[in-house]
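Can you give me the bound-state structure? Components:
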Amino acid sequence: MTADGPAIVVSDIRKSYGDLRAVDGVSFTVAEGEFFGLLGPNGAGKSTTLEIVEGLRKPDSGSVRILGESPWPRNPKLLPKLGVQLQASSFFERLTSKEQLQTFGSLYGVSRSAAVDMLELVGLTDKADVQDVDLSGGQRQRLSIACALAHDPEIVFLDEPTAALDPQARRNLWDVLRAIQARGKTIVYTTHHLDEAEILCDRVAIVDKGRIMAMGPPAWLVRKLDAQTQVIVEHGTVTADVARTLPGADNVVDDGVSIIIATNDAGLTIKALGELDALNKAQVRTATLEDVFLHLTGRAYRE
Amino acid sequence: MRAFSSLSLAMFKASYRDKAALFFTFMFPLMFLIVFSLLSGVKLGSEVEIAVVGDSRVVAALKNSEGVNLQEFKDSTTAINSLRDGNVAAIVVSQGDSIDVRYANGDRAETGPALAKISDAVASANLGAGTTPPKFAVRQKPIEETAFEPIQYLTPGILSWGVSTAAVFSSALTLVAWRRKQVLRRIQLAPIGRGSVLSSRLLLAIVIALLQAALFVAVATLPVFGLQLSNQWWLAIPLLILGTLAFFSVGMLLGAVCRTEDSVTGAANLAVLPMALLAGSFFPIDKAPDWVKLITNALPLRHMNEGMLDVLVRGKGLEALIVPGSVLIGFTLVISTLAAVFFRWEDK
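Here's the bound-state model for the whole set.
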């Protein structure tokens, strides 16, 4: 009905628990097919925001529209279009991967074979007859995402899908998430891994204390920060004194292993280092979303 | 319909795979049956004691029967005393061609086997006499009501307990696990009627209760236990279903109130075990003080026990279901309303 409109429109939603303003005036829009990330530390209000959008909670004020419909009160017309992944253990007892998908699919009236197709998408075909308790953490997480997709929804909500996964399992899951987006799904997900959101998301909203601090494509947010770039060369290639004279160079630190040059113009600085033939094993470290977060909140992201 | 059948199938599979729960559900009541039978002095597989007064071809035939131990008495008065004391299962009084058979009412474990032996003996005596009409006419008459043999009392009691405990535990644990693991939320977010979910879970509980009853009664009727089923035993089926509904709703209430599997297990034990003892599932409570009996009348399990006893053993008809049935239905309505009030989709 709103083929060209945004998939999700959230307008100024608020939710308080006692004195705690869990969500304090959050607004955002997600386009169809977009991969949208809600980022922030634990307790920032990401999950409550997501739950309000999913229709699990009523906001104290504000409104949510999904595909033109309100998710609250429980809207059976909308539910088949939404896929919601909860925590990695949200399974029925003692069923195999295949049976989990069939059972979750049946809640939506999906045929048994269609539900099982999702196993392939998440790379669990060889685990079809294994019960959830015998899967690894990463496999369980992928199964739980497959269960959210069993009825082929248009919009997928994932709450911290990569939390508590080891780095390898996280990277496997990224491939799954990209594959889902490639199928044309709209994805809204929360994470507290800023680095991951930077890689995966089309757009992110950085949430802290129930408010959105900044929103936009990750690269744009980082560039807007106008932060200095660090160019790092091996100790001994140039002296700190020489480094300070380089064009663009601002602050130079010699920590005994590397010379770390903070520069306002990385291009010029690197070019000059090249002319000095000092680029051997050089590293360039640009600002990240973590720097954006630090800049916005005045505190480091990892407390 | 697809959701209902698919959910039911999933729950049956899960239930079948939970071997510990299967053991608890099906073997535990049987263990209780054995233990309580031994404690209550059921004579397991012993010979049938039959008292005889007078002599006839029937008595001669009884003497030749396997598994019968005859005790001869001079007159029927001393024989009846022996019957009352439980020393013999039946008396055969022979006076000429007429045979009087006396027995304690049909509830004693040995009565059935004893009557069977006697009727075999009469048949063989008649065959030997070769006359028509048969020479020996048998008149059977029970002596006045006597106490049940323990097995007759234990079977309905332990079965009611087993069914109620399984219904309470499985529904309570499922509800808590589903809430804690957020399966309830997934259901909440699916376009499915909550009735389908509830009814598929209830179907599982009812099927389990009926299977429990079938296995339990089958074992109890083995000669070694010697349960005598009444002809009206099938009236136990509606009672089992109503009992399952009542205790399923207790489980739903406990599951709604408790947060963790551990706490709900404790709560379920606290609810079921004292109730089973007070309701007389294991021991008769006839000798309990009046105020205790007053309490037990408020317990649904007490009424389920009584109803099961009436239809399984006492051979009472449909009218025996009225009181227990109404109590269980009323109880179900009250408790399930409370469960609905306390129900939460998630922990907060």
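A couple of observations. Residues 150-180 of chain B form the longest helix (31 residues). The mean pLDDT of chain B is 86.
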